[in-house]
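Translate structure to sequence.
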């Protein structure tokens, strides 16, 4: 069986959405895709919806949803419908819609496009082992697809836990149109019988996403390219329900300068980092607008008549993006999330501010009352004149602190050991909840495991964070400085040491 699909006719009012999952810090990619959806909607008189996809309870982080709202608002994006503002197709938080997904799973069970699977974790594991041994790609082996209605009824009567799986046709292929790439075909042999409903009654991303996009009348799904391989499953689901397909636009992924997929190993990816480090939201939004390549570069004529240099063609406001952004221009080559460029752009925006606006920007961020008020108690007992305030707190206000080896290298340790331990500190802190007790405990555990004394352990971190061996209390300083900036400081320290070590070779 081969399913060819046609896209929605253009007559429906345009509705687009972003659907972030609250699994941690708000990602720059969410703002990038958010911006494109926003532009797409506003250019077409449509609606922009924010939906929270929080059905993966193992990755759920409670504070994350609010952080997503705040970060999107910070860059200047607003949405017409969402969990916080409501709207006609709510609720917009998937955890509040579980009944809807269960009803929809029942529809698929009834029309035989899905089936109940009673396989236990152990059974799945041993099937996987068999496949591995036979060098077959890991996928569900279809065992429960072949159960008779009587067997299913008996399992249900015995209250056996089960999931619901999509019944992917065994032969043929699914083709869908990507508005940026043209037709894309997936052979069904490469599409797994995806779990749609988990044994805890929660839907997986695929079911919830398709059901909601349909019920929320989404006409255009504009999302990152990493979802392309999920799209055949989604298309099969639309067909199974007998629903009209939205149009799919898969945007090129943001890349590091070395072209690898953007990751926090190489660049800060949290919008919180950029806000707290004093990037201006307009600069950030402009930078993200450059990523898809949808803004036309100025013509020769404009360059001459407006005395532009080529770089200035890269500077534009949200209003200009709404006017000129062209989805047909989007280039699929991976856009590079180049921090050097972002910094340059931010500098341009800083220089455009009036002195009053510049002062206000400082007072909103790096010199805000809240920040200074959090720092003050850390040094009150340590200074004799107020004039010494800056002596002990400089590291809170600088972007880069790189102490020389004499400051950070413990007497009895080698360069390599110490840098390796700092990398462990980074990994440990990445995983830590950001409160003094958690940070202290996990660092001490690390020290014990690696046989680093508490003193050496904390002193190294203190040196990296503050640039000095004397500082306000370490845990409190980390808290006030914030997780994303603290981690960034550690990362930059490690990068610098790596470069230095390479130079010495
Ligand atoms: N919840 C998915 C995410 O976290 C949404 C992907 C999509 O837009 O379909 O990105």
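Result:
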């Amino acid at each position: 069986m081969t399913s060819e699909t046609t896209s929605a006719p253009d007559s429906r009012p345009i509705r687009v959405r972003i659907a972030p999952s609250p699994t941690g810090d708000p990602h720059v990619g969410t703002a990038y895709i958010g911006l494109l959806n926003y532009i797409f909607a506003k250019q077409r008189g449509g609606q922009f919806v924010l939906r929270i996809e929080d059905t993966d309870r193992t990755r759920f982080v409670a504070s994350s949803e609010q952080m997503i709202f705040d970060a999107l608002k910070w860059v200047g994006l607003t949405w017409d419908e969402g969990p916080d503002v409501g709207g006609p197709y709510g609720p917009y938080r998937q955890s509040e819609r579980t009944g809807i997904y269960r009803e929809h799973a029942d529809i698929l069970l009834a029309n035989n496009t899905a089936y109940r699977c009673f396989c236990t974790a152990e059974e799945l594991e041993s099937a996987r082992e068999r496949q591995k041994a036979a060098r077959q790609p890991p996928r569900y082996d279809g065992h429960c697809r072949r159960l008779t209605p009587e067997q299913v009824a008996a399992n249900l009567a015995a209250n056996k836990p089960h999931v619901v799986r999509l019944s992917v046709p065994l032969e043929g292929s699914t083709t869908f149109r990507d508005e940026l790439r043209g037709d894309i075909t997936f052979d069904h042999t490469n599409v797994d019988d995806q779990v749609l409903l988990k044994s805890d009654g929660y839907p997986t991303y695929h079911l919830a996403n398709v059901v909601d996009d349909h019920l929320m009348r989404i006409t255009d799904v504009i999302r990152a390219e990493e979802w392309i391989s999920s799209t055949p499953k989604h298309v099969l689901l639309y067909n199974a329900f007998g629903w009209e397909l939205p149009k799919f636009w898969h945007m090129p992924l943001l890349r590091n300068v070395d072209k690898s997929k953007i990751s926090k190993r190489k660049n800060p990816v949290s919008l919180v980092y950029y806000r707290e480090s004093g990037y201006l939201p307009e600069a950030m939004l402009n930078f993200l607008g450059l990523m898809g390549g949808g803004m036309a570069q100025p013509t020769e004529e404009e360059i001459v008549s407006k005395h532009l240099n080529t770089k200035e063609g890269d500077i534009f406001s949200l209003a200009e993006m709404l006017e000129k952004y062209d989805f047909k221009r989007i280039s699929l080559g991976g856009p590079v999330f180049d921090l050097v460029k972002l910094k340059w752009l931010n500098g341009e925006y800083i220089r455009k501010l009036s002195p009053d606006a510049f002062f206000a920007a400082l007072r909103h961020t790096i010199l805000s009352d809240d920040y200074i008020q959090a720092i003050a108690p850390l040094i009150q007992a340590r200074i004799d004149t107020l004039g010494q305030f800056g002596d002990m707190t400089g590291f809170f206000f600088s972007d880069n602190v790189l102490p020389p080896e004499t400051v950070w290298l413990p007497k009895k340790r080698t360069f390599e050991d110490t840098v390796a331990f700092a990398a462990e500190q980074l990994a440990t802190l990445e995983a830590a909840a950001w409160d003094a007790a958690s940070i202290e405990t996990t660092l001490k555990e690390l020290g014990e495991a690696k046989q680093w004394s508490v003193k050496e352990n904390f002193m190294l971190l203190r040196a990296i964070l503050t640039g000095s061996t004397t500082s306000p209390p370490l845990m409190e300083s980390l808290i006030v400085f914030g997780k994303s900036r603290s981690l960034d400081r550690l990362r930059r320290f490690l990068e610098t040491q790596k470069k230095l070590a390479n130079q010495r070779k």
